[in-house]
Predict the structure.
Amino acid sequence: MVSRLLAAALLVVATPVWGGQPHQFCLSCHPAHYEDRGRCSDCHRGNPSSDRKNIAHSGLRAGKYACFTLGDTAQIKEGQLLMDQLACRRCHVSAGRGNRLAVSLDSSAVRKTAGELASSIRHPVANMPNFSLEEEQITMLVNTILAGAQGRKTTTTAPVRVHFNTSGKKSVDIFSTKCGSCHRILSERSGALGTGDIGPNLSGILSENYPKTFRNGELWNRANLKLWLKNPREIRPWARMQPVILTEKEMKELESIIVISSDPNM
Ligand code: HEC
Ligand code: HEC
Ligand code: HEC
Ligand code: HEC
């Protein structure tokens, strides 16, 4: 009897328990809120078993990035709209949908802190367009990424790697020679091609995730692309791009670079 009491007492000492739940040391510095919706770390991450701030705050998610935990709010709807408008899915998978030309945002949501996601959008790598967004929009997108990744199994298939030409040799593929001075593209076959930022980033152009910027909100397809290259001004009177003349063989090579094999439309 005595030993059993002792064992129980020891257990209490080893794992401090309040009302059946392990104690959250967050509460020694912060008032409680949203108690009915879960524990602090369900929404904020962090480490509730330490009363030392730097440990308790490791991987912490600030309140503004935890808004998605409150449900399908107006903010999330607006974030989803923004994600569609900016066509993040021409390169990324988010909420299970999108091209796999860059890392899946569903897996980034698990591997990275919200602050890191925000900073990747604020200061994008060379092969991600700089959307020059307001802080509020970035916060919305991060919440949307986190909401989309919730309860999802992360990448069953490895993301296509974005490889960079580090050999110092000049690329001789048709995209690099004919388009790359003005455009960039992430391709399934050859990774990141092109170095130009004068024209739009063409990643995923022949897929349904690319913005519908051909005539009258039409998707780009092989036929449309041919028309455009022949004479951009015929499609868009004010277009700044000059015609690019390609042979049949060059056109085939270009298509083989920019096509996305996983796209059911192709
Ligand atoms: C030792 C005291 C202490 C503990 C323990 C602690 N915090 Fe904090 N927390 C602070 C202080 C002080 C701030 C004010 C900002 C700063 O100094 O980092 C803060 C800020 C925050 C913020 C705002 C962060 C931001 O970037 O705006 C959140 C969210 C937060 N804490 C959540 C938690 C959670 C969740 C836990 C438990 C896992 C926790 N804190 C544990 C002291 C603590
Ligand atoms: C259901 C999710 C949820 C839970 C559970 C939750 N929070 Fe929050 N927390 C939020 C949200 C969302 C905000 C942003 C402002 C708001 O809506 O109140 C926030 C804001 C905060 C802030 C203000 C600073 C900031 O980053 O904006 C602190 C500090 C904080 N929470 C600490 C805690 C602590 C400590 C616990 C555990 C007792 C806890 N939270 C539990 C969602 C949650
Ligand atoms: C043209 C392709 C492209 C588009 C469009 C694009 N990104 Fe990216 N993004 C990238 C590349 C490349 C990286 C670097 C990681 C990698 O190599 O896969 C990246 C990285 C990120 C990261 C960091 C991920 C991590 O794990 O470190 C976030 C977050 C992100 N993008 C969000 C967005 C959002 C939100 C949008 C839409 C507003 C967007 N991206 C549009 C290409 C793109
Ligand atoms: C000398 C620079 C230059 C070269 C070379 C060039 N482009 Fe462009 N391209 C542009 C510019 C600038 C635009 C923006 C057009 C506008 O003003 O509407 C553009 C727009 C486009 C668009 C429309 C995309 C959209 O969403 O609006 C496509 C498609 C395109 N280019 C494909 C190509 C391809 C494929 C090649 C190579 C065969 C190529 N371009 C070569 C400068 C160039």
